[in-house]
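To: structure subgroup
Subject: Chain for Friday's discussion

All,

I'm putting the inputs and outputs inline so they're searchable in the archive.
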Amino acid sequence: MNAKEEFIKIFTENITRDGSEKLLDWIQTTDFFTAPASTRYHCACENGLVMHSVSVYNTMMEKHFDEETDNHESFAICALLHDLCKAQFYKVSSRNVKNEETGRWEKVPYYAVEDRFPFGHGEKSVFLIERFMRLHLDEAMAIRWHMGEFGDNKTSGTISQAYNMYPLAVKLHLADLESTFLREKGTSAINNR
């Protein structure tokens, strides 16, 4: 089973909230299933975004799911959709790089950011999801703050407050970190030239 098939299976088996079918239909009209997860840090390759999303789900379930306190649907929503903001976000471009063996300059592909809707990171994912399906407050907080202190989330004290109030936010952040920095090493094929 490839990452897209696994994503759709996890989504359809776990997410049954009103609007979820329309959300999945919309996702399939975007480049979500072919886009990279980043330009160079992790899963910077075709299908990287869906690979990362499934990896975060698997990490969350393996490391942080508690049958007594956690909800399968919430975990699936947060893990699979936390980076929905990256759909329609990257483009393939090219640049000249000197080939060390031949001494010649060659055009090589790389992913560049082309953000047509600069609404932030986590908050953009929340916004896009909410166009189709209502999130519970803890899910919205988890998706909004999944980057922790990385990126544009440097707002004094607010992250700590969210993490203290919503354990799901901590679990998503930890799963995202582990997937990105430990599990997804070596998945940046397009930019490793």
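Points worth raising on Friday:
The beta strands are 90-98, 105-113.
The radius of gyration is 17 Å.

D.
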